[in-house]
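Chapter summary example.
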Amino acid sequence: MEPNLPDVVLWSIPAFVLLTVIEMVSYRFHPDEDAAGYDTKDAATSLTMGLGSLGFDLLWKIPILAVYMGVYELTPLRVPVLWWTVLLMLLAQDFFYYWSHRGHHVIRILWACHVVHHSSRKFNLTTALRQPWTSATVWPFYLPLIACGVHPAALAFCQSANLVYQFWVHTERVGKLPRAFEYVLNTPSHHRVHHASQGGYLDRNYGGILIVWDRMFGSFAAETERPVYGLTKNIATHNPLRVATHEYAAIARDVRAAGSWSERAGRVFRGPGWQPSPRPGAEAAVPVPAPVSVQAAGGPAPVRAEAPAPASVTAAAPAPEHTR
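The structure predicted for these 324 residues follows.
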């Protein structure tokens, strides 16, 4: 029998709207020059991406639910829906969410889905709504739960609860919480690190509700300097269709330009910043001095003074157009 569990996201929509309005008003009366704040076009794009994801998720859920129900019918195991088993299912779902989230950062074809959520250079509650339209890549990570006897409806409830929890961590209006909370839970401070584009912050703090998984598996970073949000190569568009598909298009371009099948596979299944090894016999390029970066701790984005390249430097091939 299908569990009778509430639609957590639907019931949370009034709270989403209220908290977003409060945050917007807070910036109006208590501005913070260092905070990313709000931008009308950016916020509108985030809202559009969120609404679009609701429609596309309905389409993806049809085949995904069919697979889940097939696995659920085949397994002899059954997890009853009781108050204490729901807590255990929430814990297990959060564990698998960590690995799903981590996988969507380190495998480029999965990153092409998740990059949408990181494409804003702002960090506010509307950023939480900037969701991908190609979330069909998420479902395999939760198959072990279904195989262990968790009903697909119970899994959907846990996923919704996880999503609702993460709404409030997308803000700069909340500083660091007491140490006990910061040690166990995903907080705004931890999630600001996750959305930052600085090198030391990249690919950190994947947790959904709990941050303990990051502490256990070596992906935790504390917030020290002020984050710079967005991608290492930002996209200059508010077009929702381009926001949703730009990394898939970059992958297609890189695959077409690849010189071998191994490079094509790497462009799809390696990390977003992966580069093939130099071909044997290729002329080595003279290293170019790195740009000088001046940045005060916790200050704005670096001011770069480009060092001139030596005249004898061999021209390098253009870098792939992926974003990270």
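To summarize the output: Residues 116 and 132 are 6 Å apart (CA to CA).
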